[in-house]
Structures are given as C-alpha cells and as structure tokens.
Amino acid sequence: MGIFEIVAKDAGGRIGKLRTKHGTIETPAFLPVVNPHLPIVSPDDLKKLGFEIFITNAYVLYRDEKLRELALKQGIHGMLKWNKAIMTDSGAFQLMAYREVEITNREILEFQKRIGVDIGVILDVPVARGSYETRKRAIDETFERAKEAKELGFLDTKDTIWVGPIHGAPIPKLVDYAALIMTELDFPMYGLGSAVPLMEEYRYQQLIKAALTAKKRLPPNKPIHLFGAGHPASFALIVALGYDTFDSAAYALYARDKRYMTPEGSFDLRELRYFPCDCPVCTEYTPQELRSMDDLTAQHLLALHNLYVCQAEIRRIKQAIWEGNLWELVAKRVSAHPELARAYAWLLDKDNVSAYEYFEKYEPIYKRSGIMITRIEELFLPIVRRYRERLKERIYIWSDRIIISEPGAVTSLPRYLGAQVFMLNPVFGIIPREIRSQYPMFQHLSFLDKMPEFSINFAKEIINWLKEAFNIKEVYVFARRKSVAEELKRVFDADEIYAGQDVGVIEKEEFILHTARAMIRWQWGVGAEKLIKKPFFEYSPTTGVLRKIWECDISKEEVEKIVRPEIDRIVEKRKKEGKPIPEDPYEYFYERIKKWLLLAINPNNMKLIPQRLFAYRFWKHFWIENKELRYMLVARSDTEPYILRGLTLFCKHVVEYDEKIRANDEVFIIGESRKLLSFGKAELSAYEIKFFDTGPAVEPRHGFEGFPLD
Ligand SMILES: [Zn+2]
C-alpha cells in the first residue's frame, strides 16, 4: 500500500494522509524545527499545540557525543519523549553554512535508521551560490548519494520514509534537471531544497518558479516537502502549488528578534499596543507585559504564539481546500508583501501557459463554493481560463440569429425567442444563455462592473468565429440604454440593435430541448447533446430552480434494459419498507407517465447527475457505437463484480481512462470486457489516477448488477 493518499483537493493543493511508522499525518503539515541543543519550545509544548510531527537535525545529534549516545540507546522518540512522527534533516543546511561536515552519506543514513526516524533525508549538497557548473556538480553529487542510498537498500525499508532532495533553485533549468534525475530513483517522498536564501531575501517569484518546475516533473502520488518555508503568509501559496509538508525555524528566529507573526505579516513587539490574536498567550498577556519579561520567557511565549499562528493558518488552508476556495485565501495572503503579490501575479499571468497547464491538470471541475474575483489577474484563474478554452469546442448552436446582450440585461429578453442569446460578462467574456447557471459562471462574484479590454476582445473573437463557423445570418445587440446599445453595435460590428423586431419564436418544448442539449454538451463535450431526445424539465416548487431532467422519448430496448429492471428494484424496496405496491407497477410507474428520469441536477453548481438511463445511452453511444472512451474508466476484470454492485473504484484497479477526466466530473465505469458496470463522481483527475495506487478513483452512484445490458 502506498504511503500517501489524497482526501480532498483544490488548485494544485491537497489534503492528504501520509502514513508513517508513528501514525498517519494529515497534510498539508507544517513541521516546526526543534533545535535539540536549545529548544525554545519543547516537544511537550508542541503536543499541546496539536502538532503531529516536527523536524530536528540528525547531524546536530550525531556531532554531540552525549546526544548521539542517548539517541542510539533510547531511539529518537524515547530521547525526545515524543510518540508521534519525527523527521530529521541530514546536515545539508550545516554544510551550506559551514562548508564542512564531518560525516559521510552512509553514516548519516545509518544513524537516522538506527535512531528510528520516520522521515529521513540523505546527505544532500545544497548550493545557493556559484556558477551554473558549480551548482550542477552539486546536483550530480546529491544524485550519486541518492543512488548510494538506493543501492544500500535504504529505500526498501518501510520504517523510514526517505526524502529525495531536489536542488538547483533559483535556476529553473537546474531544478528541472535535478527533479528529472531524482525521479529515476523512485524515492517515496521528495523535497525541494535551496529555498531558504530565497525566502530570506523575499525572492518569492524565483521560489515559486523553482517550486512549480519541480512539481511539474515529480509524480503526483509522491508527497513533496519544502525545506524552509518561512513566514505563514506564504503557506497558502506553497500549498496551492502542490507542496504537502514544509518545515521552518522562522517561528523561533522571529521570536528571538521580538517579532510577532500574523498571517498578514509581522509586527515588532516593541511597537505593538494590542495583540490581534486570541491564542492563550495573547489572551493572557498584553504586549506591555511581554516586553517587561526576561528575554528567555518572552522569547518562549512569542515562539508559542508564532506556532499557534502557523498551525491556525494550516487549518485555514485545509478548510479552504475543502470548500474549494484556496485561490481566494492565496489572494488574501499575498497582500502581506509586494514580492508575494508579484509571485502571485506571475503565476496567473495570461502568458504563463506553463503554470496554467500545470493547474488545469489538477483543478477540480466543480467546487463546493463559487469563485470570487477581486483582482484583475484573476481573470486568468485556471477555472476561468478553462471556460474560455472549452467554449469553442463545447458551445451548442441552434439558430442562425444571435443577440448579444449587455451584462445583466438578459432577464429583460423574452424566453422563447427564435434567436440565440449570448450574455456579455466582465470575467468570462461571453456566456451562452442556456448554460449561464452552470458552474462556475453563475457561481461567481466579481469586483468588475465594466468589461475589461481582454474580455471584450475574447467576446469579439467568439462572435466572429461564430459568424464564420455557423453561418450566422443576423447579429443583434441588446442593452437597456440606447447609448450602450449603440456602443455594442459598433464594437461587435452587429447588424441591428434589438428592440423587439421579429426574430422568430420557438415553442416551449423546443426551448427546453435546446437548453438541455446545451447543458449536456457543456458538461460532456461534442456529441453528448444527442443523448437527449424529448426532455421534460421539473423545477423545484419552492425555489423555481431546475432540479430534474426527464426523458419522454424512450425506446422499447431502453424500457427492457433500464426501465423495467429499475421498476423491479422500486417494488423490492417498497416491499422491504412495507409500503403499498401498485397492482400493475409497470403501468403505475411508467406507462401512466411515459417518461423516465435522465438527469438530476445539483442545486448548488447545476451539475448534471446521470441516472441509469443516461449512463446506458452514454455508454452505448460513445463506447459501443463510436469506440470512444469519453469520460470513461476501465476497471480491472477481477473487480467487475464489485463495481457492478456499486462499490468504490480504486485507483490501482483502473487500467485505462479518458485523459480529460478532472476531479468531480461525472464519469462512467466499464469493465475490461467493455461492459457498462457503473457510474459516479471522479475523486481525482485522470493524471492523478494514473499515478496513485492508494485511494478511491470514483465514488459510485449506481451499479448495473442484474441489468440485462449485454
Ligand atoms: Zn497569539
């Protein structure tokens, strides 16, 4: 079984479970650096603060004869009186600081193993300065030592998780090289080093570039550590990039300098009149009282406060991942320092295709919360960018007349018009009316009240493309005020201003059909719109929101394969529950209403949730007729009976998949025999499913056990 599993994810970040010999750690985790010589806080303090792991230095222990003997005799857990996980660093930092380490790689590996550390590091060679060649030599030397660790069998042990260090920062080319050669050795965990000098000098953009370069190379199933993460204001950004654990001594170093951390930045204790925090330290003392204490006591208390702040920030980050608004938290935190803001702006730059490609692979397709646009660079959040990338391919066109409506005016247009309506939108540029409630278009709030130039240009590009590709005959513009309408007419080179001219009308049934088709095509791509023939919309009686899509045109074959067996199940269930059963269940449940449920709708994000009839049509159309694995995964043959019953599909049992699948997509599972087994919600993206051998790939909705589908 793998040591690492994803529980929840957002942006490139993830909440994970990291299994060590001394318990499972929930990640992202912040590991305070504990100095065995002069601990400013004790392991006992850390326990009270809720830490599950900390990091200390194996080389410092080794060099001190007394500590070395004690560690060897009692083990590191016994010596430090700590029964949870411990990570040790190997002395690389000392090497960088003093240029001399009196220990070999093999010795420090043996030592870490003998004292029983849970996460250990080889004796790497960090180089923060020097020529390209010097740095490359250091990377090659680290690689040789990593190879030695592997050849000596260290990586085979289950007791210690060994970290493969990646150096080369801040030079992306070197980081890429280091990550590439280190992945060859298949370490259970990786770590990005040489980051401390960048943090200390606020060179966040270089740090983020290096961190992203490494992540792009490293397989997603490996937990990644960042050596020396510094201030809590940077934690959210580091996690969003996909880093799972990070250590820092900053809480102690800051305390020594009388600096008081907050997630928004730091204060000098000498200048604080009030504590903006309600941790036990800040509720018990005033800044005045702390200043009057002796140095060591004040340092200790400040360090405790700083740790509280770091730990609370980690909890906030995990909550943000859970809710799907990690980007929002990142945006708040980068305000702490202009260099952080610069790094963030670089990450979301419209020309930074490389970063977008990275995030797009991981970014879930639906989230628990909507998106908040508070800065102009957020027009390039991966989820917004993805909308623009998908629009041309997935747009559903049913009329040769179009009306472009100003933002907000669309509700003033009649519903059943013969022309197709597009709404301008400052964030998304242009949105087809049929899909406007679908995530994330309806679920966004933005500070923009005017169309920025980029969005106007995107809307123009789409309209011009539509004219060409679909032979559009008439383009109208619509706005509440005449002056705005004139302006739109000019910008979009439209034929007329719409003011109630005859553009034709459509029947309600037609309107429903187009809407349903546009929504289905948006969610599953080209061709999926054919899977609905005669829809019926059911709205919520309380909110009026669309809740269910029924199909009224059902073939004889579908009745036999889906409707009848489902009625049998309804009857069985009612029997068990002691509910009355109609005399002729088939007549009562189907013949009388002549329609069957095709899709349910999640009221929060308007995601279409397939029912068995839809899954059957999807599989038949895409797999049976077109041999296309669209939004499908193939389960290993020995798991077929379980998947048919509607049990979870695990990553390790997936033998093939559609690369397009993203977390929270609604997907379909077929067997190696190509039989339809079940359908459900993807927990991870295709790229993650490919690498992980632990954890679920799809949380099923229904299986097809007993259905005569062959
Ligand atoms: Zn506090």
Describe this structure as you would to a colleague.
The protein has 710 residues and is an alpha/beta fold. It has 3 domains: 4-347, Queuine tRNA-ribosyltransferase-like (TIM Barrel), CATH 3.20.20.105; 367-495, ArcTGT, C1 domain (Archaeosine Trna-guanine Transglycosylase, Chain: A, domain 2), CATH 3.90.1020.10; 611-710, Archaeosine Trna-guanine Transglycosylase, Chain: A, domain 4 (Roll), CATH 2.30.130. The chain has 26 helices and 30 strands. The strands form 8 sheets. Strands 4-11-10-9-8-7 form a 6-stranded parallel β-sheet. The protein has a 6-stranded mixed β-sheet with strand order 26-30-29-28-25-27. A 5-stranded mixed β-sheet has the order 17-16-15-19-20. Helix 6 runs parallel beside helix 7 and helix 22 packs across helix 23 (585-591). The mean pLDDT is 95. Residues 275, 277, 279, 281-282, 305, 308 line the site of zinc ion.
